[in-house]
Amino acid sequence: MPRVILGPLEFLHTGIHGALCHRPPADVEYVLMNATHTMVLPTRDDTIFSAQAVFDSVDFGRQSTVVHSSPWPVLNASHWIAETDDLGIMLFCGHYIWNEAFTTREARRATRSATFAAHVQQRVTNLLTAFAHDSCKAVLVNTEFERRRAEGYLSAVGHPALAETVAGKLRVLYPAVAPRPRSVVERKWQEETPLTVMFCGRNFAEKRGASALRAFARVLQAWPDTRCIYIGEIPEDAMTEHHQVLQQIRHFPTLSHREVFAYFDQAHILFHPGMSESVGAVFIEAAAAGVAIITAAGPGYEHIEEWFDRGGASLIDRRTVAPAAEESAFAAALLELRRDVTLARRHGLYNYAMVTEGCLSLQRRDAILTPLYSRGSHEASPLTLDHFERRPEQAILSMTSDDLMLARNAYQRSTGRQGQALEVSYEL
What we know:
Layout: E1 3-7, H1 16-22, E2 29-32, E3 36-41, E4 55-59, E5 66-69, E6 74-75, E7 80-83, H2 87-92, H3 100-106, H4 114-132, E8 136-141, H5 144-156, H6 160-169, E9 170-172, H7 182-190, E10 196-200, H8 209-222, E11 227-231, H9 236-241, H10 243-246, E12 250-252, H11 257-266, E13 269-271, H12 281-288, E14 292-297, H13 304-308, E15 313-317, H14 323-339, H15 341-357, H16 362-373, E16 395-400, H17 401-415
Parallel strand pairs: 1-2, 1-5, 4-6, 5-7, 7-8, 8-9, 10-11, 10-13, 11-12, 13-14, 14-15
Antiparallel strand pairs: 3-4, 3-16
Helix pairs in contact: 4-6, 5-6, 8-14, 12-15
């Protein structure tokens, strides 16, 4: 049985990697592990948050096994794969992304310092060297859109040979979770019960919770028997503003992952008007329960059409719908699915089929991972720091995963950004 180290723990996705461990590929045993993070900093006076590291990596120890890393290059392993939802963040950002100077100045070419640009150039060279090394068997991205975007990054970095090698290792691994029992899905769509609409979003502003509450108010006015469930914290001022609709719905500030799945089992429609979505795990988990989806297409949701281009969702296309009209368009889509239960059911069952036997199925996921985990008769020499450019004034810093998270939390407290969502926008 192949033994695969999966980590570091603090960078794993609760839903996607949780499903990977709960339902691993046949004959695969996952071992969850933290790592030692090794960075190369520009000077000995720098920290991982005060300056852009010119190299980032993890080390799980010298163990004769396969490593599935999210998302860092792996030192001292002869067989590893890396998984990232945005290769650009890996190449250009690193831990310095938490510094406000990055988001306000360094992320844009016009205001970027020459020092930062030089550090990024060295960083890109080092990371491409790592991913191009024979010990790296693949670089996983989660959608075709991310693969195309990664190829765009690689074509622009000025290292054609390294970029071509890394591009050849890109593999699309769609998120996958185990489907809910078929009997649960069929029963909720056959029973003569009121439709249940669900919203799930941790960040009230980013996920546009106010729009969801106003849409709930409209659908309840037209169909008072509709069950509406809102999962996520709501600020006090918004609780006051929307107190009337909140008296008509079920609101849960937080739920466990298991509890969210239980409500997906009851839900017919997921209403998701958020500004953007990275991995899109909430859509996969809703689809696994045969839930119809209302969400956006276009900027911030470029990958969504890969899954729902032929059904499964009512999409509000931000390329054609004006921002001022978007909230009304989302509400209209909800009213339409509430009115046309046959269409909602068709969307829900289409999604369930994608998860049971289509592009979002465990079978497809396993068909990609199994050969990548297979070790050949000839193993590559492990990657070490000796493979990378390092100047005399530059410093090597190693931290355990626990120490890294403590340092990040302390840095966020010192800057007043603790608990804030990280919004990233950058130019090459």
